[in-house]
Task: structure prediction
Amino acid sequence: MFKTTFRLVIILSFLIHCEVFAQSNIIDEIVWVVGDESILKSEIEEQKIRAQYEGVTFEGDPYCIIPEQMAIQKLYLHQAQLDSIVVNESTVMNQVEMRMNYFISQIGSKEKLEEYFGKSILALREDMRNTVRDQMIIQQMQQKLVENIKSTPADVRRFYNSLSQDSIPTIPAQVELQVISFQPSVPQEEIEAVKERLREFAERVNNGTTDFSVLARLYSEDTESAKRGGELGFMGKGQLVPEFANVAFNLTDPKRVSRVVESEFGFHIIQLIEKRGDRLNCRHILMKPKVSLDDKQKAIHKLDSVSNVIRSEKMTFEQGVMYFSQDKNSAMNAGLMLNQRTGTSKFEYQDLPQEISKVVYGMNVSEISKPFSMIDPTSNKEVVAVVKVKSKVETHKANLLDDYQMLKNYYEEMKRDQFLREWIAKKQKETYISIDPAWQNCTFLYPGWIKQ
Result:
């Protein structure tokens, strides 16, 4: 509930600041007052219209849900002001540019985005900056309020024992996996062919015969930026891989294209669009040398030999990782894969790369797979791999022995949600709140808005 409430606050916060033009026949009036802040009818209407555009649905009357969530937001922001909570403006702007780039990629172009919202890019960016800043402040405020909520093993045990059988959560099947993977060698001729193609593109742009964005849409293998003509959006140097950043931030002439740059993702050429202080917007074209079928078969054969040595117990899987694996995310961890979503080594099948999920679904604990090829989710390059099932847990009702950490997290999240509910109820009593009588006929999530 804590996560759900906060998520709804964020959604509605975005709807406030990225407004569409309200219908011209709306007569504005103040319908809520929370402390020194007012909520206008036009703001609520704008959010409702925006929700219709975005396909957002409300479980109840939007004229009750929207202003209540706006009021909750104002309580958090007011408390954050009292507690002197501020956010880093550079971080705010990085988030803004990422979101603007996402919206542009979804709608097709800056011009279409401006037409859709009825505002200029500059105005939209400023609106979004306010939105992102408020979101970050609210998140920090919530974290500060609940930072001391911790639990002991005894707390978790009492909580678990208090649950009815129907209330005990069901844990989906999970696996822990170790992996050995490496990238098949790419012929030097293929590498040179890719670099020569990129040099040809650069020359065509530099002599003015072809537009960079057209080439990016046609040939770049970075599919997301290719939709925007190769444009990446404003980024700081730390957001880019070093090889790319070092060249991009040294560009000075938007009419000239960089030399060919090699990174872990492949080969690039880069065109500067604009610099703003320590941030830069540029276009790039990414091309990746392809592994030949013969080289892939050689890699599979090599990994098959390694697997057979491990199965014959002449070498442990951990030693195989040490000697052969090129997976930098697991090589220093005995090959153990880590779930980026949860921060643990346990995966639900849906969280695994599709190729791995298919391979391990029918495997037993300690079993080693046959070699298979897959696209590495980090580098987006083709690799060959074998996996070993370290542990496997079938779908089951949660218990203290196997699922203590999950139950602990569940209990603490419940306590955080309870604390924030009580905090909001307390702030309702302490804050001046006035609601127009025409807007009071609601079943609010927090009933303390209307004071008797």
In short: The longest strand covers residues 382-393. The radius of gyration is 27 Å.
